[in-house]
Amino acid sequence: MSRGVPWPIGLLALPIWFCPHGAHRHLLGSRDGTLGRSRRGSLQRDCGRRRRKPEWRVDGGTRNAVAHGDAVTGAGVDVEDAAVRLPSSRRVTRRRGTLTFLRDVAVIIVVAVLVAFLVKTFIVRSFYIPSGSMETTLMVKDRILVDELTPRINDYERGDIIVFRDPGGWLGVTGLDTGINPFLRAGDWVLSLIGSSSSDSGDHLVKRIIGLPGDHVVCCNELDQLTVNGTAIDETSYINVPRGEPASRVPFDVVVPADSLWVLGDNRDRSKDSRLNQDQPGRGFVPIENVVGRAFTITWPLNRFGLLDSHDDVFVSLLGP
């Protein structure tokens, strides 16, 4: 028979595998290779105590793990009191996190509104088209973007589509509509500050530049075409008139004064433009200071999204004044 550990000793050694906290020390402490009843009881108590999970207590403002059966010393608070205090501290932390989040959101909104206001005031602005005077280039209810910055750096050119404030009398009497809900009016005003609404589109007009300061513009020659500085221009690529009709049914012969523009709508028969306002104080001319900017793109509806054509090729052959 091979030598080995007697089987009773082997059975008694099984707790070693279930108590990894140093219970083997009890076996090594037995001189005769056996365990007494008292040692087995000590072993069981040791394993039972070490296998319990620690609980938390608050002592002096800090959290310390205390095992079952260990003595609590000092001026600390017992485990039950900690269970009351810890959730309270978590609520305070959560409240501070919420306030920080709301503060960050408020800062982001304020910065976004400020940036949008600056962009709308100095760079680009949105307008909607309320009439058909520029059909088919612009349709009713189209939304357009107007470049306010570039024209301040470079001069306007013939063919540019511009948005301008009424020089006086072009739109007739436009009083304040008192039937609009004041809350809706206030909301529309706030949205207009950031460029999301165009509450003043009804106070502006959109037309195409035909004559620059000093230009001599006449309608019409024997081919029913406009002439600018004696050169006929072929507008068939953008004007909306019945086939065989002249470029304008209203004749005119003007010289554009300094700091002013002569403008016409692409839908000539439905546009109240410079031709039909010659009896106004401005004699049909638009002061350049009234111009908001140059329209460069349609943003809505999506099926009409795209850049606007100034038709430079039509005016490229014109001589200066």
Brief summary:
The chain is α+β, with helices and mostly antiparallel strands. Helices cover 29% and strands 21% of the residues.
**Which regions have little confidence, pLDDT < 50, spanning 5+ residues?**
1-77, 79-84, 175-179
Structural class: alpha+beta
CATH homologous superfamily identity of the largest domain: Umud Fragment, subunit A
- The percent range for strand residues is 15-25%
Q: Spell the H/E element sequence.
A: HHHHEEHEEHEHEEEEEEEEEH
**Mean pLDDT metric:** 75
**What is the number of domains?**
3
**Main sheet attributes: strand count, strand direction, barrel closure:** 8 strands, antiparallel
| Overall shape | elongated
User: What's the number of extended β-strand segments?
Assistant: 14
- Overall helicity: 25-40%
Q: Which CATH C-level class of the largest domain is it?
A: Mainly Beta
- Stated plainly, the CATH topology of the largest domain is called Umud Fragment, subunit A
Q: Gyration radius, to the nearest Å?
A: 44 Å
